[in-house]
Amino acid sequence: MTESANHSSTIALIGAGNLATHLALALVGAGHQIVGICSRSGSSAQRLLDRLGQGGVATSQVADLPTADFYLIAAKDDAIAQVAAEWPSDKRTGILAHTSGGVPIDALHSAGAPYGVLYPLQTFSKDRAVDFQAIPCFVEGANEEIAQQLQQLAQSISQQVQFLDSERRRVLHLSAVMACNFVNHLYDLAGQQLAQHGLSPSLLQPLIKETADKIKNLSPREAQTGPAIRGDQRVLDAHRALLAQQPLTLQLYNLMSESIFQTFHP
Amino acid sequence: MTESANHSSTIALIGAGNLATHLALALVGAGHQIVGICSRSGSSAQRLLDRLGQGGVATSQVADLPTADFYLIAAKDDAIAQVAAEWPSDKRTGILAHTSGGVPIDALHSAGAPYGVLYPLQTFSKDRAVDFQAIPCFVEGANEEIAQQLQQLAQSISQQVQFLDSERRRVLHLSAVMACNFVNHLYDLAGQQLAQHGLSPSLLQPLIKETADKIKNLSPREAQTGPAIRGDQRVLDAHRALLAQQPLTLQLYNLMSESIFQTFHP
Question: Is B207 within 8 Å of chain A by CB?
């Protein structure tokens, strides 16, 4: 994205976790300058600054952050309203934005600064590189001008940027919880069944990979297979018997099978 | 796998669907000969034989299949017992095996032939190539000798072959249902939420891919994120409100969130 060089911004980050790390790497890669990072103790902020190699201020106090064009909150959802409530009055010229799918834009209203949202739809792990350019990013601003500035910033790191209001961002977040958090929990439950019978959870990896890959070409509806579609009671009962000692997982099995069946027999 | 050339077998297939197709391609690739294929009308059997380019008999009648070293049933679960019950007496020298995760070995007992199971743990689509060598395959035989012959056959097409009795294969099948069928249904439900609000389900693809990729390096337990872990009622309630008109999906949401919470707060 060559145009990003024309719009180099100064950015301060609140948070130094997985999202903050990947965001900072992408922003620096796009030619922006991370001028400061705030983390609870300041030490993970310093480690992230060291990794970025641009200098900047590491602190545990938002008040000590340098002035910046953008202040991006990449911290836990709970922390967002508190950051806004305690936002220093000398930092009300730059745009304050959070990066959460589950928090409405209004959570930042009390900051007294121009505010908005820049939500990257992805799950981040510290040690796994991600291609930020491929991550869909969703922006919202307290007004049109803020939204456009956040759009410009987002477009410097992602090829897929769109405006999205808080109400639809909530839908997106719900979908992400289903397709990521719930899916991952099913990986966990499936692996547990194997481990309990002396089989390696890693046996599932080719299946998990292909299940995810398949829906690049087929819709999930077209890709659906398995005993639940046709309500194959013989197989369903055999599985239920295996889950007799795991009441919550058994409930999940029944409800998921019912949901699949109803999808195909509405 | 060079050793496979020393053990070229003749194989007849019952079934010409996705699994039969990928199995046939892998077997031919390993130097075996597909001497005949039986499908309901015979026409998809002929199409598959044409694709393999080795000749062979296409038929709709099991009785018309040529004699072979192995008869592999790659048909729907329901068809397996019927194939066994009607198994022709002139085909009782070769090994009859099914390829299903959900059907016990004994379903083939009535055939009067040596019988067993060769179960490849994967989901197959007609138009997607798969690397059979990477697919875990599980074999079981009515006796030790049959098991070994099936192992040898499986090892010619897969690098991951192990013996597994019907009881543990059922556990494996349950796990596969969770990690594939249920996961795919969550992709479907998540995409539906987006579509209902004018958003493209394809927005989820980078997230889905990363969620599957992550667990190559992290256990699903380590990889788990999201509002349900910490029981974040504000976010959970917001999601529940979105699902108010979808009672079954709302139940699923609650149960999945509860199962995640209990996993981390046992």
Answer: yes
Q: What φ, ψ does residue A97 adopt, rounded to 5°?
A: -135, 145
CA distance B251 to B228: 14
* Two structure tokens written together for A245: 């000692």
Q: Taken in order A58, A63, A69, A70, is the CA torsion positive or negative?
A: positive
pTM, whole model, 2 decimals?
A: 0.93
DSSP letters for B44-57? HHHHHHHHHTS--E
B133 touches chain A (CB under 8 A): no
B102 at interface of A, judged by CB pairs closer than 8 A: yes
- Dump pLDDT digits (tens) for A149-196: 999 999 999 999 999 999 999 999 999 999 999 999 999 999 999 999
d(CA B20, CA A132): 40
Q: Tell how far CA A249 is from the center of its chain.
A: 26
Torsion (CA) A22, A25, A31, A33 in degrees, nearest 10: 100
Q: Which residues contact B219 (CB under 8 A, 6 or more apart)?
A: A188, A191, A201
Whether A156 and A141 have beta carbons less than 8 Å apart is answered as no
The amino acid at A93:
T
Tokens representing B245 are 């008109």
Selected residues 39-58 of chain B with any CB under 8 Å from a CB in chain A: none
Write the ipTM: 0.94
Q: Where are the beta strands (DSSP E) in B42-159?
A: 57-59, 70-73, 95-98, 115-120, 137-141
Nearest to A151 by CA among A4, A33, A19, A2: A4
Distance (Å) from the C-alpha of residue B180 to the closest C-alpha of chain A? 6
Give the integer Cα–Cα distance in Å for B215 and B223. 7
Residues 6+ apart with CB under 8 A from A222: none
